[in-house]
Known about the structure:
The chain is an alpha/beta fold. Helices cover 27% and strands 24% of the residues. Helix 9 runs parallel beside helix 10, helix 9 packs across helix 16 and helix 13 runs parallel beside helix 14.
Amino acid sequence: MGTGTARSTLLTSANAPLLFPALNSAQIARVASRGWIRPVTRGEVLIEGGQTDVPFFIVKSGEIEVIRPSGIGDLPIALVRTDQFTGDISMILGRPAQMRLRVSEPGEVVQLTRDQMHALIQADAEISEVLMAALIYRRIEMVAQGIGDAWLIGSARSAATLRIRAFLTRNGHPFKYLDIDRDADVRGLLDRFGVDAGELPVLICRGEKVLKNPSNQAIAECLGFNGGIDHAHQRDVVIVGAGPAGLAAAVYAASEGLDALVLETSSPGGQAGSSSRIENYLGFPTGISGQELAERAYAQAQKFGADVLIAKGAADLTREGGAYDVKLEDGATIPARTVIIATGARYRRPPLANLGQFEGVGVYYNATFMEDAQLGVDDEVIVVGGANSAGQAAVFLARTGRRVHVLVRSNTLSESMSRYLLRRIEETPAIQIRTRTEIVALEGTGRLDRVTWREGDGAVSTHDIRHVFLMTGAEANTGWLNNRVTLDEKGFIKTGPDLTPDDLSAADWPLERPPYLLETSCPGVFAVGDVRRGNVKRVASAVGEGSIAISFVHRALAESPAATVTLVRPR
Ligand SMILES: Cc1cc2nc3c(=O)[nH]c(=O)nc-3n(C[C@H](O)[C@H](O)[C@H](O)COP(=O)(O)OP(=O)(O)OC[C@H]3O[C@@H](n4cnc5c(N)ncnc54)[C@H](O)[C@@H]3O)c2cc1C
């Protein structure tokens, strides 16, 4: 990219200066002081696709070609020229390289190991800023162009395809998608290879492995999302959940020198990651998509050295001999001196008999570009719910002029929705509010075809509507805790002053002092964000609680190990 010859590469775009900025000589000298300078020869492979522990290079002279390795021939993606640097977010995240880097013009490079590069970005704010911005722009461009090491073949009519697209997208992993309903040749190819419809979708990793309808865990493993993260050693703090609260806790913990590990059952970003546009988060006057906010926070946590395990959910929390063990769904355990629970909340599933049958094929819990891609431009849709998330979904889905029915059980929307969203809804003629209305039946063969709703006066009617977005109420993600910390009557975690003397006595609280502000009924275990009783369900409050929890973690770590308590279920 940059100046020079006009060889064509995939990443050539108007954004080239953002993607491949040049460092000045003082900056290059600072980087070189942490690594070494060496000559490179034409054809030398500096990084191989799939390589772990990826080094970092600045070109002092010569040129490096970025290539996507492929079974049908190498594809040049970009050129890195004098004063420009290599790298992709994978390097920060500790994931395998997606591309091969080969010297196309001999010269000289500055080389840093991954650890040296990490030390650099933590110590040199100016260079860190240039690098982070370029790596994020590169990733955005790769995602936009579908340049990566994963190919997904599926159908817009399959729930598993939507799940995998959402998983890859929300993990910021670039991939190419082929829809068998739109490309008959691909369907024919799969038939030839004996892949039948029940085995779809198919994910091809790095052009090597073919995974049929893989679980999120299998995808994370194949693409190396969790490579090199040590599960065995005791952490200062294990943070469960990588929504805004958990990621904020990770950023503050790691930046303050704590050994922090984050566990995420699905993808970083939590509920906020599914928001099409967050407009009330401080510092983003024109709004930011939840996906972008999540990607930035995830990269920031990793930059400071926090480890994040993807598609690894916590299944239990026990205490043995003065420390905690967080048990994973796969049976492994992670030892921790303190724990932060940031597992958030999820939409309540309405009691409709055949709901599960239509999830992902007509019934959705997110309204992002992925779900939108399942819809025709003129398809009518229903959004159920009266809070901000439903408002955002309605505005987003109606932006192309398609008809959106917003169903709420109450008499009005104004109690539960922010004014700016109410105004936006009022100004969008395609959105129709139906108060005191609820869905009573779903019908369809293979996918949702019809919806029946009942209005306040008892009138029941059936409509040929094939897409329903459910955004009703929040249920705390606390089932995995098996009641080992004290919950309120709705399943949210009680902390600090919310814990009554009776609660503490039932939980065998072992210390003289009362629980800290965000501390649960177990000493050294904190709860932050939407999962906490009394939390204001907003990104800012989740981030705030995640951040301040770390000051209490420091205090808990400084205390002598709390008496050898054994975690018990509250009586
Ligand atoms: C569509 C939508 C739009 C929104 N828009 C706005 C807005 O504009 N402004 C605003 O301020 N707020 C908005 N909100 C609310 C905001 O997103 C939430 O308040 C915020 O995300 C809460 O953050 P959290 O980290 O506490 O929990 P969550 O975001 O719920 O994150 C919890 C994380 O924990 C993970 N997890 C759950 N169980 C486990 C387990 N056992 N092991 C490991 N991981 C687990 C989940 O997968 C999830 O990633 C919106 C919410 C939605 C759904």
